[in-house]
Specification:
The chain has 260 residues and is an alpha/beta fold. It has a domain at 17-141 and 164-189 and 206-220: Alpha-Beta Complex (Spore Coat Polysaccharide Biosynthesis Protein SpsA, Chain A). The chain has 8 helices and 7 strands, in the order E-H-E-H-E-H-E-H-E-H-E-H-H-E-H. It has helices at 36-46, 63-70, 82-96, 116-122, 144-161, 177-186, 193-204, 231-247; strands at 23-29, 51-56, 73-76, 101-104, 128-132, 173-175, 209-213. It has a 7-stranded mixed beta sheet with strand order 3-2-1-4-6-5-7, with helices on both faces. Helix 1 packs parallel to helix 2, helix 3 (82-96) packs across helix 6 and helix 5 (144-161) runs parallel beside helix 8 (231-247). The longest helix is centred in the middle third of the chain and has 18 residues, at 144-161. The protein starts with 22 loop residues before the first strand and ends in a 13-residue tail after the last helix.
């Protein structure tokens, strides 16, 4: 089977959210045919003036076709690169096509697109806005051991970012022009690099990170990437990801041209 790159024509760019903001919602997906169609439709309903691209990360099911039928642009990778690799492809697509703002949404249905406008509002004072499950909205249950590991990671990343962050493993984020430019070239592809390592890289590059409370549900279908009883491994691997980020060369991102 030959690699396919399928692209559905985007929504009319004249209807963008803001004359100063061209928004792309990036949805990394691996074998998510049961949920990705609903996710795309929900995104298009809540932010109709945005474009939505699903990065099919080497799926063996009909994820790409389902996303296309729901109205998304589809980038189909020839083999599985992991979430980080899929997101880097999405950021590169954004820079190549003139998008200055990117929102990351998972394909499993846990992220509620109704919170996207709130995340975008946060970009007025930040380069990255995290949708936090633990900032006062909802009652997300991560399990005691895993929640403890997440608290440790949040403490470490908060120290680097010099900003109290409660959910650094959240995959629901909005990123402004400086973050888009940084991540198009420097987005980590290692396991958990797409969350904690990416935030450390951003903080060390001088980007401002903030958060907004969001309510997240359970995945609509498929298998979760984490299961109970793996919190120790989760913390150790995440610690390695943070260490790698701290050892990376700092990337200086120039300010936006229109910044005061």
């Amino acid at each position: 089977m030959h690699p396919v790159r399928a692209v559905v024509p985007p929504i009319d760019s004249t209807d963008m959210l803001d004359a100063q903001r061209k928004l792309l919602v990036v949805v990394p997906a691996l074998n998510e045919r049961e949920s990705v169609g609903r996710v795309v439709r929900d995104i298009r309903r809540e932010v109709p003036d945005a474009d939505c691209v699903v990065v099919d990360d080497g799926s063996t099911d009909s994820t790409a076709e389902t996303a296309s039928e729901a109205g998304a642009l589809v980038l189909r990778l020839p083999y599985n690169l992991g979430v980080g690799g899929a997101l880097r492809a999405g950021f590169r697509y954004a820079t190549e096509h003139g998008y200055d703002t990117v929102v990351q949404v998972d394909a499993d249905g846990q992220h509620d697109p109704r919170y996207i406008p709130a995340l975008l509002d946060g970009l007025d004072g930040a380069d990255i806005v995290i949708g936090s499950r633990f900032a006062g909205v909802g009652d997300y249950d991560a399990g005691r051991l895993r929640r403890c590991a997440m608290r440790v990671l949040s403490w470490v990343v908060s120290a680097v970012a010099r900003r109290r962050l409660s959910d650094v493993t959240s995959g629901f984020k909005a990123m402004g022009p400086r973050a888009v430019r940084l991540f198009a070239q420097n987005y980590p592809a290692e396991w958990l690099g797409d969350t904690v390592e990416a935030l450390v890289i951003a903080a060390r590059s001088g980007l401002r990170i903030d958060q907004r409370p969001v309510r997240m549900g359970v995945r609509q279908a498929g298998e979760p990437s984490q299961r109970s009883g793996r919190a120790t491994v989760y913390l150790l691997r995440a610690g390695v990801a943070v260490l790698i980020a701290l050892l990376r060369r700092t990337v200086v991102v120039p300010p936006d041209k229109d910044a005061s």
